[in-house]
Input
Amino acid sequence: MRKISVTAVLACLVGVMPVSASAQPEFTLKIHHLLPPVAIAHHAMMVPWAEKIERESGGRIKFEIYPSMHLGGQPPMLIDQVREGVVDVVWTLPGYTPGRFPRIEVFELPFLNANPIVSNYAIAEFVERHPEEFAQYHVVSLFVHAGQVIHSTVPVRTVDDLQGLKIRIPTRIAGWMIERWGAIPVGSPLQKVPEMLSKGIVDATLIPFEASYGLQVHDLVDYNIFLDDPRSERFNGQVLIIAMNRGTYEAMPADLRAVIDANSGRNIAQWIGRVWMDAEKPGREAALNSGEFIFLPPTEVERLREKTAEAVAEQWINVVARKGIDGRPLINEARGLIEKYEREFGRDGAGAEERTQ
Output
């Protein structure tokens, strides 16, 4: 990726980042998201994605990126902003609006977490089969980060140590999981995590290293807890979305829609997976240098599995049933798709390297 120019950095600092100059753009699109310009998701994902489309469109598409909710509102409002055409593209979390996108939540269930590349291909095929809940949007990508870690101010070495801990959670699936541990889920926007830890409002937070690094969580906690499990060391995953206003997409001529399509779905599943795995490295290193890594032993992992895996799945099945959705087949389908792409690419996703953005 080429370095961002000084002009672009200065533009970021005031909240707006024009991705590149183009003489006569036919479409100037606004991208809105919740994190600051220093966030890896901004400068390693959204900026390169936008720049690539600008190049491949011959300058006919131009993007302006507005980080840090610069155009107003709170993070849960992003998905409505893009649906209503206030902005053209957003990067956000479907789980910020609980119950609106129930099917895709299946990939957030505990012990369903997989390598991001594998998961991204599985999610892409899943959404192709079940597009109905995103019918009001043009989905560029649905994908996952590397998975949740417990970043804690107190040590957690057994399941019993989780009892009564106040843990910040991002979405309702994570809240259900934590309740099964005997801990207390506390919901809040991501940006509030440092304040909540420093003031003792929570004892721990459930986020990936990518987020912990950007928020400097390693300076506020002493322990980072994983699973000693051959399949995944993380507790669960989190689904994220890059969504485009459907009207904006449909107003483009076919050749420009083709440029967007070439940078969407399966075509960027490997690239986005790699971006988010690479994004973990600075945070993991910072956490290791400033605190302790604790891997819950297999006996404790099995206790957690018994407490959460089926119980949370059943809770989700009961909740989505109220919307007329049969959840059990969706769980089986999601597991089957993950297994399919693990066979195709390997558990670490390395076999997908040929399919680059």
